[in-house]
Every structure is written in structure tokens, then in C-alpha cells.
TrEMBL record:
UniProt entry keywords in alphabetical sequence: Lyase
One Pfam family here: AcnX_swivel_put
Keyword Lyase belongs to the record: yes
Protein name, as recorded: DUF126 domain-containing protein
UniProt cross-references to SUPFAM superfamilies, sorted A to Z: LeuD/IlvD-like (SSF52016)
Span of domain Phosphomevalonate dehydratase small subunit-like: 33-114
Tree of life domain: Bacteria
A Gene Ontology molecular function term of the record: lyase activity
Lineage: Bacteria, Pseudomonadati, Pseudomonadota, Alphaproteobacteria, Hyphomicrobiales
Signal peptide feature range: none
Residues forming coiled coils: none
């Protein structure tokens, strides 16, 4: 169930790697995160001891970071987290990531669960900002950030 975003929202546009709608609090990292060895798919907890987000939980959040960080097995971990309901509600990236896209596509195909994956300008988004991702009139990603 989506919640309304404040009327004093700031909009930005992006490109969908996988279309969908989501909203939630942002969880922002300046470093990429690998889902393989970086996320516990059972809980959504970040378990990568070298990542500054160690111990934080991605479930239901809008994960914001420059890009994903390998391994190709990240696709299967993301798909499993989506199936379990422990994945981010959506992911915003500065650069496209085919590995994360495959995981989200597999989850959509196998489980009919949609998680938007968007490439956009992430500058100015900070953790705990309320973010909503919507599909625009032309099929573009519209990202609302409540002020």
C-alpha cells in the first residue's frame, strides 16, 4: 500500500531499468553495495563488514547509491529478498546496473512482485527522506522527494 507524499515535494526524472511504483524512507550510501555477501536475504540486513551500512536494514526502504557492486550472484540474492519481502521497495542508482536489473526482472517474472529500479540524479537525497517513485505520462520515472 502506497502512502501519499507531502505536497511540498521536489520532483526529479529518471530512467527505469525496471518500471514500477514504490515509496518509503530513503537509505542512502555513497558506496556501492553488493547483494551477494552484502545482504542477508532472510532479513534484509546489510552483512558486509566492509560497508558503512553494516547492520542497517534495506527492507521497505528506497535504496539510493551510485551503483551496484558485482558479483553476478547479486541477481539471485536480490530476487530471493524480493520474494521474501526483505528487499528494498525500490532502488535509485546514478549508473545502470544490469546485475540488479536481472534480479528484479526474475522476481517480477517468477513471483509477480514489482520493484522499481531507476537511474537518476541522486544528489541531495539523504537517508530518511520520504521518496516516492511513480511512472510518468511518457513512461519516465518520476521521483518525488518530500521536503
Amino acid at each position: 500500500m502506497t502512502q501519499p507524499v507531502a505536497k511540498d515535494a521536489v520532483d526529479r526524472l529518471g530512467t527505469f531499468q525496471l518500471a514500477g511504483e514504490a515509496d518509503g524512507p530513503a537509505l542512502v550510501f555513497s558506496q556501492p553495495l553488493s547483494f551477494w555477501g552484502g545482504i542477508d536475504a532472510e532479513t534484509g540486513d546489510i552483512i558486509d563488514h566492509s560497508h558503512p551500512g553494516l547492520g542497517k536494514n534495506v527492507a521497505g526502504r528506497i535504496l539510493v547509491m551510485p551503483s551496484g557492486r558485482g558479483s553476478s550472484s547479486s541477481s539471485s540474492v536480490l530476487a530471493e529478498a524480493i520474494r521474501r519481502g526483505t528487499a528494498p521497495a525500490g532502488i535509485l542508482l546514478e549508473r545502470p546496473d544490469p546485475i540488479l536489473a536481472v534480479g528484479a526482472i526474475v522476481a517480477e517474472f517468477l513471483y509477480d512482485i514489482h520493484m522499481p529500479l531507476v537511474v537518476c540524479d541522486i544528489a541531495g537525497i539523504v537517508s530518511a527522506d520520504r521518496i516516492a517513485v511513480r511512472v510518468g505520462e511518457q513512461g519516465e520515472a518520476v521521483i518525488h522527494k518530500a521536503q
